[in-house]
């Protein structure tokens, strides 16, 4: 196996877990963080006590606060900061990064003020650049314990997708490829909205029926908007769509779901975010998805109600009642013309 050097931008839970996979495979990892205190603490403890406690950092992981030193000369640059931070970080590396370095995005969100996918943000900031996106059902807490996990990598060029597939593949981390960059990006971002909703349902004390309803109707919303925006329907039935939806709607590791639970229990958004203390991508992505639904004229009732809870202070129970009292409809009428169905 040839060994590569990889820059990981963002030492949160995901950046640390992905660094561990790569380091254990013998790659040289340069893990960058912006915070000097975190850098000193992590260097001392060889552990990310804030974002991923309980896992020792592998010796192949070197820590950096100087972004120039972290980015210079590596083969791959992995983005593991929150989606809203990506543009700012890219601006800082614009004059350092070269076209030989593949950018891999692992953040799952949409840029709130522009409604752009991360690949579009990369293109705006760096122009045409080799790019891949890594997504799928993969909680950092489990990956860092070598628990079997599957993900998908999408890129415009097959060689780039396969290069990143080979980079990450291990005995416990299985990587599939997919040419559908738009679908993989949107699946990963939009599932956070539904996971937040699933959490609200749990916080209200509802049961498994309500959760199953949200997940099933939720994936339809994701697929409707995602395909209107250029993603392939099959992608949303895969790891980035239904796969990630299952894991985030059901796992207590999910920050989106946990934030939803606190919201359903009546906590304010401020209280919720301070209690979670980590990035909750679904909050900003809900707003972006709501606006995109309007732009593409796509019906997304669950997303609209979650938007109302978050941005119009509608009580969660009222939002549920709004969903349950919608006009009767056919289950698949948005895909098949109801008049043409053979009863
Ligand atoms: N955790 C997981 O299991 C998974 C997460 N993801 C995705 O990965 C992305 C990161 O999530 P995760 O690691 O969990 O988040 P965390 O909350 O654990 O960490 C976020 C990291 O981003 C850094 N950051 C935030 N803003 C900036 C900025 N402006 N400049 C530089 N660094 C910044 C934080 O640094 P600081 O401490 O200085 O604020 C921190 O290191 C998200 O998009 C998430 O959806 C995807 C799959 C799995
Ligand atoms: O995307 C994830 C797992 O696949 C992480 O989800 P959360 O951000 O909700 O924790």
Overview of the structural elements:
By secondary structure, the protein is of the alpha/beta class. The chain has two domains: 5-179, NAD(P)-binding Rossmann-like Domain (Rossmann fold, 3-Layer(aba) Sandwich), CATH 3.40.50; 182-331, Orthogonal Bundle (N-(1-d-carboxylethyl)-l-norvaline Dehydrogenase, domain 2). It is 50% helix and 14% strand. It has helices at 13-24, 36-45, 67-71, 86-93, 118-126, 140-143, 158-168, 181-203, 208-228, 233-236, 239-250, 255-264, 269-276, 281-296, 301-311, 316-324; strands at residues 5-9, 28-32, 47-48, 52-56, 61-64, 76-79, 102-105, 131-135, 149-155, 173-178. The strands form two sheets. Strands 5-2-1-6-7-8-9-10 form an eight-stranded mixed beta sheet, with helices on both faces. Strands 3-4 form a two-stranded antiparallel sheet. α8 (181-203) runs parallel beside α12 (255-264), α12 (255-264) packs antiparallel against α13 and α14 crosses α15 (301-311). It is globular and about 60 Å long. It starts with a strand and ends in a 19-residue tail after the last helix. The model has no long low-confidence stretch (mean pLDDT 96). NADPH dihydro-nicotinamide-adenine-dinucleotide phosphate is lined by residues 10-15, 33-35, 51, 80-83, 85, 88-89, 106-109, 138-140, 278-279, 281. NADPH dihydro-nicotinamide-adenine-dinucleotide phosphate (NDP) binds at residues 10-15, 33-35, 51, 80-83, 85, 88-89, 106-109, 138-140, 278-279, 281.
């Amino acid at each position: 196996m040839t060994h590569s050097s990889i820059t990981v931008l963002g030492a949160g839970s995901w950046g640390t877990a992905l660094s561990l996979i790569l380091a254990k495979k013998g790659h040289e990892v340069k893990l960058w963080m912006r915070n000097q205190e975190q850098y000193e603490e992590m260097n001392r403890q060889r552990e990310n006590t804030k974002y991923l406690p309980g896992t020792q950092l592998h010796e192949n992981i070197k820590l950096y606060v100087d972004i120039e030193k972290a980015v210079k000369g590596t083969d791959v640059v992995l983005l593991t900061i929150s989606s809203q931070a990506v543009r700012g970080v890219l601006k800082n590396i614009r004059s350092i990064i070269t076209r030989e370095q593949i950018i891999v995005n692992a953040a799952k969100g949409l840029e709130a003020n522009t409604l752009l996918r991360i690949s579009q943000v990369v293109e705006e900031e760096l122009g045409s650049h080799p790019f891949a996106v890594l997504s799928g059902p993969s909680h950092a807490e489990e990956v860092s314990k070598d628990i079997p996990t599957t993900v998908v990598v999408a890129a415009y060029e097959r060689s780039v997708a396969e290069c990143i597939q080979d980079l990450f593949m291990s005995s416990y981390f299985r990587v599939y490829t997919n040419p559908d960059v738009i679908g993989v990006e949107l699946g990963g971002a939009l599932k956070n909205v539904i996971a937040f909703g699933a959490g609200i349902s749990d916080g209200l004390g509802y049961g498994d029926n309500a959760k199953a309803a949200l997940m099933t109707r939720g994936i339809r919303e994701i697929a409707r908007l995602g395909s209107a925006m250029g993603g392939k329907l099959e992608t949303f039935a895969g790891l980035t769509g239904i796969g990630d939806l299952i894991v985030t709607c059901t796992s207590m590791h999910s920050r989106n779901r946990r934030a939803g639970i606190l919201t359903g229990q009546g906590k304010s958004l401020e209280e919720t975010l301070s209690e979670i203390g980590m990035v909750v991508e679904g909050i900003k992505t809900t707003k972006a998805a709501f606006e995109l639904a309007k732009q593409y004229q796509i019906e997304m009732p669950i997303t609209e109600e979650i938007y109302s809870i978050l941005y119009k202070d509608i009580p969660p129970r009222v939002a549920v009642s709004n969903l349950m009292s919608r006009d009767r409809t056919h289950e698949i009428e948005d895909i098949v013309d109801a008049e043409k169905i053979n009863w």
